[in-house]
Amino acid sequence: MVEIRKADKNELQALIPIFKESYKEHYIFNKGDNDILHYLEDELTTFEKVGNDGAVFIAELNNEIIGTCMLVLEDIHEEEHSIWRIKNLAMLTNFKQIGVEKQLIEQCLKQVRDLIASEKSVSAKIEVHVAGDDSNSVSLYEKIGFKQEGILLDHYRLGENTTVLGLLMKR
Questions:
Q1: Cross-strand bridge partners of residue 55
Q2: How confident is the model at residue 105 (pLDDT cuts 50, 70, 90)?
Q3: Running DSSP on this structure, what letter comes out for residue 28?
Q4: How far apart are CA 80 and CA 25, in angstroms?
Q5: What is the reported pTM?
Q6: Domains and CATH numbers, the chain
Q7: Distance between the two ends of the chain, CA-based, in angstroms?
């Protein structure tokens, strides 16, 4: 059974091969392992310092980390409406067909839903950027309830468009 949970700092090194396999064109994940580890540690430290409830989630099967994603708080408007972003959803290729990506996304949604229920926010918008022509990822997010909101031209790389999807949650 797959377990989805928050990553500990000592597990970040294990995420590097997953990111490298999933993001062959990504400007961060094409760098050396030390640079990638530094990026991941910075992200995790930011979540801990600001106490903003962001997280690096991991999917683990039989004590092996097989997938990951990040939930990042982008902004809060008047302490009532928060804007979140799911980013860097990555999965080992051998495990893509067992529904773990959906479980990771749903864990992010649960985290935001719980924050709304605890009255830390009245509403929240969760955004996702899908780079390139990754129609499978767009379809997955749409099945979960995300709606396409636009296309960013030449956003991450020249000649590559990015689909923006969003999901609104309210108390």
A1: 71
A2: very high
A3: T
A4: 37
A5: 0.91
A6: 3-170 (3.40.630.30)
A7: 31
